């Protein structure tokens, strides 16, 4: 028998260390370089952090486990691009903590769902999926319309995210509650403030069809309606972001 | 405890012994080893051809210059070119001329149906009959005219969307925004019930008639026949987007409506939009009523 192997096998600590070393090679070569390679995340125009209302919607999306059945990852496959639109960019999920790429499509991919259907449809569909889509197996989320959105925790959410590297400014953190309340109210005359803080891609309106109240439905629909809408793919240079 | 040769099999033992039991150290079959080293050799070829080894700030690009993103762009473009060939009339001809060609339906309806079901059916239904909040596309009642160009335009820019040329139609919230008092809204409701031939209170409807002329006829026209230029539906027929009956009408008057038809010009190609326009026309009863 090979004596080196025999020696290794007979020294448990050395053997464990050797296993750890071999097992970490995959991470060392496949994961670690992504943090240092310069073009891992493309530099594209239009990407911004979520507005507080969208972030609240994102949190509801995570809370309800939407990722278990819906991916947000249009792969570089012809069938994916044909069906869902331009392939997903790393930049599009750079502010997601955690990312919602998902790995299973019981329902369709949602990476470019924003603007595809109307708010009314989203509300009707989330409330009673089978009322609008025959044969759907999605659970209903009608209660979202009855639950007022808790905006009090949003400033701390923004602070937490800013510590992970999402570039929220102090002004954005300070105004998080107000920003969330007024993004769901087109009569508040607050659109300019939101655009000033978050750029021209902010959609301001009553998302859930109930203008008297800011509900979790408002937040979730606001989030769904902005998905995939930030990057202008007509002006994107695919050569530049070739991978 | 040294490996020894086993007499029966002729192989070496491992040198371990447990109560007289020894373990053979038979090497793995040669074919597996060839397979393993062959795989590693193939890996080396792949490393040279494709993007593979990472460095600190970059990675090896491979001699083929392969990019999954450019690859899919090319495949999608090929697919588009193929479709452009198969759907040649839709690439070059305008939608009105296309709508006059009786031969297109038999050939292109199946493809149009797939496109419709992928994009439109969740709101307007698989049979195009619509559902509450989403209009029936087959009943011959039109909000923005039944001509092929106008339907095509609605598909392109949508209604009440963020598209810069969007069609815009909003039913004001007469109740919530305090433009009419509760009693007045009730009267107008009765008037609308009257002109649509539903059970109503005649005295209230008479009071509502003047209110309607003052507040509603700007869009819905005199007598509530609707207006294609404003996208206001006729209130005198049997087509009701948000439901007929006093409750639905009262709700509309109180809280308003602003239904959204998404804009499809960024999601679908001009040829696909033409195809869907024809699909809607093929399915419908034409221009029976407005």
UniProtKB/TrEMBL annotation, chain A:
Q: Does the keyword Transmembrane apply?
A: yes
Tell me the Pfam families matching this sequence: FixO (PF02433)
Q: Which residues form the Cytochrome c domain?
A: 52-228
Q: Where are the transmembrane segments?
A: 12-35
**Enzyme Commission designation:** 1.9.3.1
Q: Name one GO molecular function term.
A: oxidoreductase activity
Q: Which UniProt keywords apply?
A: Heme, Iron, Membrane, Metal-binding, Oxidoreductase, Transmembrane, Transmembrane helix
Report the top EC class in one word. Answer: oxidoreductase
Q: Which NCBIfam families match?
A: ccoO, PRK14487.1
Protein name per Swiss-Prot or TrEMBL: Cytochrome-c oxidase, cbb3-type subunit II
Q: Which organism is it from?
A: Parasedimentitalea maritima
Automatic annotation (TrEMBL), chain B:
Spans through the membrane: 34-53
Q: What is the name listed in the Swiss-Prot or TrEMBL entry for this protein?
A: Cbb3-type cytochrome c oxidase subunit
NCBIfam families named in the record: ccoP
Family in the record: Belongs to the CcoP / FixP family.
Whichever gene encodes this chain, its name is: ccoP
Which cofactor does the UniProt annotation name? Answer: heme c
Q: Which species is this UniProt entry from?
A: Parasedimentitalea maritima
Origin superkingdom: Bacteria
Query: GO: which molecular function terms?
Result: oxidoreductase activity
Question: Taxonomy-wise, where does this protein's organism fall, top ranks first?
Answer: Bacteria, Pseudomonadati, Pseudomonadota, Alphaproteobacteria, Rhodobacterales
Q: What Pfam families does the entry give?
A: Cytochrom_C, Cytochrome_CBB3, FixP_N
What is the role of this chain?
A: C-type cytochrome. Part of the cbb3-type cytochrome c oxidase complex.
* Note accompanying the cofactor annotation: Binds 2 heme C groups per subunit.
Keyword tags: Cell inner membrane, Cell membrane, Electron transport, Heme, Hydrogen ion transport, Ion transport, Iron, Membrane, Metal-binding, Oxidoreductase, Repeat, Respiratory chain, Transmembrane, Transmembrane helix, Transport
| Binding partners and assembly | Component of the cbb3-type cytochrome c oxidase.
Residue span, Cytochrome c domain: 106-196, 203-284
Localization annotation: Cell inner membrane
Q: Which residues form the signal peptide?
A: none
């Amino acid at each position: 028998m090979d004596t080196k192997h025999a020696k290794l096998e007979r020294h448990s600590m050395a053997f464990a260390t050797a296993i750890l070393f071999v097992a970490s090679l995959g991470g060392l070569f496949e994961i670690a370089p992504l943090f240092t390679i310069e073009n891992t995340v493309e530099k594209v125009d239009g990407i911004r952090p979520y507005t507080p209302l969208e972030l609240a919607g994102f949190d509801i999306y995570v809370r309800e486990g939407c990722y278990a059945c819906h991916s947000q990852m249009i792969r570089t496959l012809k069938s994916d691009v044909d069906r869902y639109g331009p392939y997903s960019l790393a930049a599009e999920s750079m502010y997601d903590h955690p990312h919602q790429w998902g790995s299973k499509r019981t329902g369709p991919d949602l990476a470019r769902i924003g603007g595809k259907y109307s708010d009314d449809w989203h509300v009707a569909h989330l409330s009673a999926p089978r009322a609008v889509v025959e044969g759907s197996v999605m659970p209903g989320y009608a209660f979202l319309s009855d639950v007022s959105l808790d905006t009090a925790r949003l400033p701390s959410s923004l602070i937490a995210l800013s510590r992970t590297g999402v570039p929220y400014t102090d002004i954005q953190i300070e105004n998080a509650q107000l920003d969330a309340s007024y993004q769901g109210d087109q009569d508040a005359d607050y659109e300019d403030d939101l655009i000033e803080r978050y750029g021209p891609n902010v959609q301001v309106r009553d998302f859930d069809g109930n203008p008297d109240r800011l509900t979790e439905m408002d937040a979730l629909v606001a989030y769904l309606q902005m998905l995939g809408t930030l990057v202008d793919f007509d002006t994107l240079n695919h050569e530049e972001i070739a991978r | 405890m040294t490996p020894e040769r086993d007499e029966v099999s002729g192989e070496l033992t491992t040198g371990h012994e447990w109560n007289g039991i020894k373990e053979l150290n038979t090497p793995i079959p040669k074919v597996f080893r060839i397979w393993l080293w062959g795989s590693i050799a193939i890996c080396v070829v792949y490393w040279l051809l494709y993007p593979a080894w990472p460095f600190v700030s970059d990675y090896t690009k491979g001699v083929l210059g392969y990019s999954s993103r450019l690859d899919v762009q090319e495949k999608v473009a090929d697919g588009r070119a193929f479709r452009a060939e198969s759907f040649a009339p839709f690439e070059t001809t305008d939608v009105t001329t296309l709508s006059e060609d009786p031969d297109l339906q038999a050939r292109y309806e199946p493809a149009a149906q797939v496109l419709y079901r992928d994009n439109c059916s969740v709101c307007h239904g698989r049979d195009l009959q619509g559902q509450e909040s989403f209009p029936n596309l087959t009943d011959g009642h039109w909000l923005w005219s039944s001509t092929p160009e106008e339907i095509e335009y609605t598909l392109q820019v949508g209604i009440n969307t963020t598209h810069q040329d969007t069609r815009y139609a909003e039913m004001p919230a007469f109740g919530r925004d305090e433009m009419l008092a509760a009693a007045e809204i009730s009267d107008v409701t009765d008037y609308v019930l009257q002109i649509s031939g539903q059970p109503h209170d005649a005295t209230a409807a008479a009071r509502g008639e003047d209110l309607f002329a003052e507040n509603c006829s700007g869009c819905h026209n005199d007598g509530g026949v609707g207006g294609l230029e404003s996208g206001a539906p006729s209130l005198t027929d049997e087509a009701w987007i948000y439901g007929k009956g006093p409750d639905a009408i009262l709700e509309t008057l109180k809280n308003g409506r602003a239904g959204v038809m998404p804009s499809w010009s960024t999601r679908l190609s001009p040829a696909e939009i033409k195809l869907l326009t024809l699909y809607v026309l093929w399915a419908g009863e034409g221009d029976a009523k407005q």
